Amino acid sequence: MSTPPNKPSLQDLLAARIAEDSGAKRVAPPAAQWVEPDWKQVAPGIECKLLARDEKRHRISMVVRLARGAEYPAHVHAGVEELHLLEGELWIDERKLYPGD
Questions:
Q1: What pLDDT is attached to residue 44?
Q2: d(Cα 80, Cα 64) in Å, to the nearest integer?
Q3: pTM value?
Q4: Of 68, 5, 8, 64, which is closest to residue 37 (Cα–Cα)?
């Protein structure tokens, strides 16, 4: 969905309002547009789609799908790992996650 050329986008309106309220210089919205990430198979029956990565803070956010019977192999996290389980069941420590968790 695109914005008509003569109507400012929501990002433009927010940037202008923040600059006005704070007295700071207006920051233009980023030019980059969202690109849908690809699903990557990380182990047999397990697919992840990386949504965001913050290298500075060592954080990632992703969605995960597990096929019936698939087991996520033991691994070490370099930081915070946020995931949303779409399909399957996943044990993390003593907690069992279900789709929607």
A1: 93
A2: 15
A3: 0.60
A4: 64
Q: Mean pLDDT over all residues of the chain?
A: 85
User: Do the strands 59-66 and 80-87 form a parallel or antiparallel pair, or are they unpaired?
Assistant: parallel
CA–CA separation, 95 and 81 (whole Å): 16
DSSP secondary structure, 20-73, as one string: HHH-PPP-PPPS----PPPPEEEETTEEEEEEEEETTTTEEEEEEEE-TT--PP
What percentage of residues in the chain have a pLDDT greater than 90?
Answer: 35
Kindly report the CA angle at 77 between 53 and 92, in degrees rounded to 5?
110
Cβ atoms of residues 29 and 16 within 8 Å: no
